[in-house]
Amino acid sequence: MKIAIQGELGSNSHMAAVEMLGKQGGLEIIACTVSAQVLAKVVAGEVDGAVLPIENSLHGSVAEHYDLLLELPVRIDGESLLRIRHNVIAMPGVKLEEVKRVMSHPVALSQCRRYLAAHPEFEVVPFYDTAGSVKHIMTAGLRDAAGIAPELAARVYGAEALVAGVEDHAENYTRFHLLRRQDAPLDEMRVADADKMSLVFAIEHRPGTLVAALERLARASVNLTKIESRPVPGSPWEYVFYVDVRFDAKEKAEAALAALREHCRMVKVLGLYRAA
């Protein structure tokens, strides 16, 4: 099975893919530079699916990924929650006191502010990817630098974790989606086991239309667990709304969907799956 991710091997997306699909065996991770490239490979059939982050418990939603879900013929087949742990990683044999520079993705750096503040001797350098910082250090043979990245990055590139768990908050989780082509064969057992639905809808730009849409979900007895608004390209100050709902019977999900379709000018089901 080929699964595309955004970022380098050893990243949190790599870890999430292994957690979700590693038990199936024969998993090949295809690292991509940007998320649009990831989903282009899915749509073209070059890979069997993709694993992309959709939301972090500290930094919120990944807006670009919501836009791509609406734009492209893909569906959500599953989700997982990954506990995010940041580690200071350097070349084997390097001591912490030898490190002069620490590099990582800006989001990872912002999640390690207390540790970095306690080490003012470090020059903090933003980098394009967490695992990519470790790859760069090992490729360039930098013995005065360290990356902040998942522990998997150390294993992938033959580096060494000097300090584990330097994140500010222990309750730091990222929610990932498993994505496939819209027309990929459905796993009937997975669908039968579903208790969560993600969808996007657009409403008329009039007072009260959003409230009316949400009331329809409430009357269908589904539990709204997430709502996210995104701008409509070319229509300033108009929005589409992404929602996640939980349900304990498939009939409730169907009733919610039917009620929204009566009221909204556009409804797209993004996926039916088991909640993480």
Outline the fold blueprint.
Elements: E1 2-6, H1 12-21, E2 28-32, H2 35-44, E3 49-56, E4 60-61, H3 63-71, E5 74-83, E6 87-90, E7 101-104, H4 106-110, H5 113-117, E8 123-126, H6 130-140, E9 145-149, H7 151-157, E10 160-163, E11 173-181, H8 188-192, E12 196-202, H9 209-219, E13 223-232, E14 235-246, H10 250-263, E15 266-273
Parallel strand pairs: 1-2, 1-3, 7-8, 7-9
Antiparallel strand pairs: 3-4, 3-11, 5-11, 6-9, 6-10, 12-14, 12-15, 13-14
Low-confidence stretches: none
What percent of residues adopt helix (DSSP H or I)? 25-40%
Structural class: alpha/beta
Give the overall silhouette. Answer: elongated
Beta content comes to 35-45%
Mean pLDDT: 95
User: Would you list the SSEs in sequence order as H and E?
Assistant: EHEHEEHEEEHHEHEHEEHEHEEHE
Biggest sheet character: 6 strands, mixed
- The rounded distance between the terminal residues' Cα atoms is 22 Å
Number of strands: 15
User: Radius of gyration in whole Å, from Cα?
Assistant: 21 Å
Number of helices: 10
Describe, in plain words, how this protein is organized in 3D.
By secondary structure, the chain is of the alpha/beta class. It has helices at residues 12-21, 35-44, 63-71, 106-110, 113-117, 130-140, 151-157, 188-192, 209-219, 250-263; strands spanning 2-6, 28-32, 49-56, 60-61, 74-83, 87-90, 101-104, 123-126, 145-149, 160-163, 173-181, 196-202, 223-232, 235-246, 266-273. The chain is built from 10 helices and 15 strands. The longest helix has 14 residues, at 250-263.
